[in-house]
Write a structure and sequence with these properties.
352 residues; four-stranded antiparallel beta sheet; 27% helix; binds flavin-adenine dinucleotide; alpha+beta; 18% strand; disordered C terminus; single chain; binds iron/sulfur cluster; 12 helices; five-stranded antiparallel beta sheet
């Protein structure tokens, strides 16, 4: 490991001031950053430990019915908060499908949003990687790339973003609250992560030193509580990142779709909101034809980046399946399917 300074600020302004210096990195749960440092894929000159910053570990219900949760809320605490999981079940489902129980107990909301790609070449110091070392090339292009991006990639980088949490969050119009050297600002989550283009090393729109302090969901997101699911396909039934995933949320009146939200994970360098597919669904009846058309539209611009053409068809199918399951209605108690971890909620009963 490389030498670094360690700073433990007592307040958000102190943290922001410390991290404004070049080469700084915030430390939250450490489940991603410390791994990267041990393998030298990250070499911060200064660690700004935010774990004891006051006020960032709260879930606050807003008067209008929305919710605001701090960047230091643990993934497991958010998923197991009864009111939160009832109001935003697909988000709880996404959180509980990620990593292992131990990791979820340590991982934080802010760290999950800001986690780096799992591209193996990014982690391997012997490989060329434009994201780690700009201009060095991309060994994934002709390498082992069956899990890489099928949407929004460029010849400079074909990595995907790994977060499960971000997928339903982006579908539900989450907003990220940020404090930085220039003050406070808000960023729609859809605009936080960047596609690679010619500068894959620029992964987010955060400026140097900017700290995520909270995430907010508008009251309108709660309208989808009764018809929403997050589905994740992975190579084994637990403890694995998504090959592809989908968050689907519907507002249904009679047999007609009045509101639709759809986002995909594991397909691009950012959580992928399928807005055109959503627009197509509104006003449609709940039919297999409408869902198939929406899936086709969501993947219309997809193209393989290597050995991963199968992901395009897989993504289409998971879109259709998530829409079908959302139509059936959010289960009161989630089934104990491998892809659905709700049965692990304390007090919840298995129904399968
Ligand atoms: C074996 C394994 C399996 C995993 N499986 C999954 C999975 O299936 N699904 C999934 O979604 N994730 C998975 N993860 C990733 C895990 O969820 C992330 O490591 C975790 O969410 C990161 O949170 P953290 O608090 O530990 O972040 P840290 O490791 O502390 O930080 C991660 C990054 O975010 C930055 N950061 C942290 N907090 C802030 C903030 N408030 N503002 C600005 N920047 C910040 C840090 O500087 C760092 O660059 C897995 C991880 C491991 C090790
Ligand atoms: S896909 Fe991106 S992260 Fe992976 S090696 Fe290529 S440039 Fe690096």
């Amino acid at each position: 490991m490389n030498r670094f300074d360690y700073i433990k600020p007592a307040s958000v302004p102190e943290a922001v001031a410390a991290a404004a210096l070049p080469g700084s990195a915030y430390l939250a749960g450490g489940t991603n950053l410390l791994d990267l440092m041990k393998g030298s894929a990250a070499r911060p000159a200064r660690i700004v430990d935010i774990t004891r910053l006051p006020g960032l570990d709260r879930i606050e219900w807003l008067l209008d019915g929305g919710v605001r949760f701090g960047a230091l809320v643990r993934n497991s605490d958010l998923a197991y908060d009864t009111r939160f999981s009832r109001t935003f079940p697909a988000i709880a489902e996404a959180l509980l499908s990620g990593a292992s129980a131990q990791l979820r107990n340590a991982a934080t909301v802010g760290g999950n949003l800001m986690q780096r790609t799992r591209c193996a070449y990014f982690h391997d110091q012997a490989s060329a990687c434009n994201r780690r070392t700009p201009g060095s090339g991309c060994d994934a292009r002709d390498g082992e790339n069956r899990l890489h991006a099928v949407l929004g990639w460029s010849d400079n980088c074909i990595a995907t973003h790994a977060s499960d949490l971000c997928v339903p969050l982006v579908a539900l119009d989450a907003v990220v609250e940020v404090e930085g050297p220039q003050g406070a600002r808000e960023i729609p989550l859809d605009q936080l992560h960047l596609l690679p283009g010619t500068t894959p090393d620029q992964e987010t729109t955060l400026a140097p030193g900017e700290l995520i302090v909270a995430v907010r969901l508008p009251a309108s997101a709660a309208a989808f509580a009764h018809h929403t699911r997050y589905l994740k396909l992975r190579e084994r039934t637990s403890y694995a990142f998504a090959i592809v995933s989908a968050a689907a949320a519907l507002e249904i009146e009679g047999n007609v779709i009045r509101g639709a939200r759809l986002a995909l994970g594991g397909v691009a360098a950012k959580p992928w909101r399928a807005r055109e597919a959503e627009a197509l669904l509104i006003g449609e009846r709940l039919t297999a034809t409408a869902f198939a058309k929406a899936a086709d539209l969501a993947l219309a611009e997809a193209r393989p980046s290597g050995d991963n053409a199968f992901k395009i068809e897989l993504a289409r199918r998971i879109v259709v399946r998530s829409l079908n399951l959302a139509t059936e209605g959010t289960p009161e108690v989630m089934p104990a399917l491998p892809a659905s971890p709700f049965s692990t909620i304390p007090g919840a009963q298995h129904v399968a």
